[in-house]
Amino acid sequence: MEETDREIVRLLAADGRMSYTDLARATGLSTSAVHQRVRRLEQRGVIAGYAAVVSAEQVGLPLTAFISVTPLDPAAPDDAATRLAELPEIEACHSVAGEESYILKVRVAAPGALEDLLARVRAVANVRTRTTVVLSTPYENRPPAV
Amino acid sequence: MEETDREIVRLLAADGRMSYTDLARATGLSTSAVHQRVRRLEQRGVIAGYAAVVSAEQVGLPLTAFISVTPLDPAAPDDAATRLAELPEIEACHSVAGEESYILKVRVAAPGALEDLLARVRAVANVRTRTTVVLSTPYENRPPAV
DNA sequence: GCTGAAAGGCCCGGGCA
DNA sequence: TGCCCGGGCCTTTCAGC
Question: How far is it, in rounded angstroms, from Cα B125 to Cα B118?
Fold first, then answer.
């Protein structure tokens, strides 16, 4: 990928609603050239989509935690990720190497809701959990250095 | 927040570039009514911004890991988060309760680059690290259930 | 791949219910 | 709050190079 494309990706990562006209001004291309490049970046999957950044705090979910998860029955088929997907508090689910099987990132309203969520995680996926509470988040979702 | 606003937030979380006209069609309001509500959601910080979703894989960073970080000198001022911010491989930095001080989420090109990054993390922040490699990500960045 | 132009649609105020 | 309504801007497409 060459420099102009990377610049476009950077600009759209910072402001996903930037207009083609502004992108054109910022890159020194015409709007149609920019438009074509953005379309190609979308088709190649470099730009996977566009999203509004929703503030979990403002939406009543100020408590973030990481839950590491270990299956209680290693012989059972591992469909934990699928079963856990139905719990809306789970923002992310990563399968990992190491002592545990999955790391979940969750958002809840309060400590009591976390306790409740942990019970549901254990019940739904038949797992043991280890929870790390987030105290503050200096930064997250920084775009990759393109 | 009432149902129409939540619907707007859901729609924009799924497609951050949806036009006001389409939002209006989807919610049964006029475009200017939708426009006003979106502006209010932005002002209240419910919608913190808009971003293109950049695929780390497509951009040459297929390896994800979590790095737990513990200061070697607990007496030193804790500016680890600030110092670590200059490493572009770090996508997120969370201050956490528990044995360790921070959890970092990082993206690199290959195992060798992870080794190199770990050395830089230790050097920059004067910390001990514990790394968990991500094997696959069933899902991440799911919007909160608004 | 890029440019430029042209049509159609969208954005985004102001005014009023 | 929400709706209607313009003027201006943006998007999108299509030759032409």
Answer: 11
pLDDT at A77: 84
The pTM is what? 0.95
The DSSP H or E segment spanning B141 is none
Report which secondary-structure segment, H or E, holds B29.
Answer: none
Q: Which nucleotide is nearest to B40 (CA to C1')?
A: D1
Residues 6+ apart with CB under 8 A from B105: A140, B64, B65, B66, B90, B91, B92, B93
- Choosing among A132, A133, A146, which should be mutated to test the B contact, i.e. which has the most B CBs within 10 A? A132
pLDDT, position A78: 84
CA dist., res. A47 & res. B128, Å (int): 35
Q: Cα(B102)–Cα(A138) distance, rounded to whole angstroms?
A: 10
Query: Could you count the other beta carbons within 10 Å of the beta carbon of residue A52?
Result: 27
- Residue B1 has a pLDDT of 74
pLDDT digits (tens, 9 = 90+) for B63-105: 999 999 999 998 888 899 999 999 999 999 999 999 999 999 9
User: CA separation (Å) from A45 to A117, B61, B140?
Assistant: 34, 14, 17
Helix-strand-coil percent breakdown of chain B, rounded to 5?
A: 40, 30, 30
Cβ distance A107 to A61 under 8 Å?
yes
**Residue at minimum CA to C1' distance from nucleotide C12:** B32
Judged by CB atoms closer than 8 Å, whether chains meet at B91 and A47 is answered as no
Closest residue to A134, CB basis, from B47, B94, B143: B94
pLDDT in tens, B11-64: 999 999 999 999 999 999 999 999 999 999 999 999 999 999 999 999 999 999
Strand C nucleotides below 7 A of a protein CB? 1-5, 9-15
Contact status, residue A102 vs residue A95, Cβ threshold 8 Å: yes
